[in-house]
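Sample intake sheet
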Amino acid sequence: MECSSSASSNLDALSRTLTKLLHLHHATTSPPPPPPPPPPLQTLSSLLAQSPPSPSSPHESPSSSAIAESLIAELFAIVSAIKASYAELQLAQNPFDPASIHSADLAIVAELRRASDLKYSYLADPDPYPNPNPNPNPNPSPVLSLLREQRNLLRTYEVTSKQLESDLDSLDSRLRALRSDLSDLAHANRALESRLRGQPRSLAGLHLSGLDPTHLLAALRGAVSAVKSFVRLMARRMERAAPPWDLDAAARSAHPAAAAALRHPRHRSFAFVSYVCHRMFSDFHHRDFNLKPLAERRAWDRRRFFREFSHVRSATARQVLDGGLVGSPGFDQFRRAKYASVVGPKMEAALFSSSSAAAAGGSPETEWAVGFAEVAIRVWALHCLFYSFGEEMGPAIFQVRRGSRFSHVYMENVERDHGPVGVGIGGPGGGPATVAFTVVPGFRVGKTIIQCRVYLESCEGERTVVIS
């Protein structure tokens, strides 16, 4: 019995000892605290922006500075190489060159990989050579990188120069093509004008229903022809006056804008024609010419104007001087008012040595009176035909201000029919030709433009055409 009791007590003591040991083991083997998180990776730009640490040894600062300098120089060389290759890639697009495009693309990819490798190698170990005597050539020398950068910049400039030369050649080719097109269009335009001038529309037997702008053009040509004939009479009268007139001074006096614009003595006639047309076509856009004796014309409709045109279109100057235009109320007042505006007492006295009422409209044997009567009839007929177009056609008369830029749409150069003297459609310095003065006004009927005739000068200003 004693043996059994002794064994039981020994087992209990052993159990208690093991339990204590197990508790002690659990207490000493508790899990350690979690490790601190690793510091975040820094970008290459943030590393380069940081101030270099103060040297802890005499060799640390020179090594870090040399590595940073080499890194930056290599980065600039890589960027310049990418720019040069990209410029070559753009140049190879036009004209399309597959081989050059492929070569430039490979060069760009290679430089990008080189930049990526440089970045990750630096992030992994910013200072891989802490020894006081590192390998003397661990990375490309900054001088070599700078040299490569300059070579790449030179490549970029060469590519840009080639691109500019290509653009210049393209613009030259386009300019030559446009000049050729302009020449063809001008030739076709002259051919059409020759056909139009060679086949003038007849005003005889014209009916209101068949009226179109070409009839107005025919009437305008008749009026301008009468004006030119009268101008020739006026020039001859000036030369025969006592004392003879200075025609150059007379041209400058008749049209102040012609003082500095006329380039040839024979161009004086342009100034005289412009002067007569300006006076004769003054207030043309009024139904009554802004004359009180013609006030009744304000109430006329297009049919009444066309009847008046049909009545006077075949009239002659002799008929006017013999007994006037029967059935045309106000024509005599119009003729006398315009004569006073164009000639006036002072000019008449200088031309004829004394004021002559017979010259104005009394004596049928005077060539001067016949010439002016013809002008009055043609302008009167043109005015009646002008207002024979309905309001829906929007008829308008216009002239061009001095200094306006020459336009082929609205204008015709009067020098084109008078030999090679002149500036054509361009100024002597290659700039745009501009208008010195309007010689004959233009007209617009619906969508049809009858060009005004202008005398050109060389001027750098640019203005617009004004339609009144």
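Comment: Strands lie at 396-398, 411-413, 433-440, 442-445, 448-450, 452-458. The mean pLDDT is 77.
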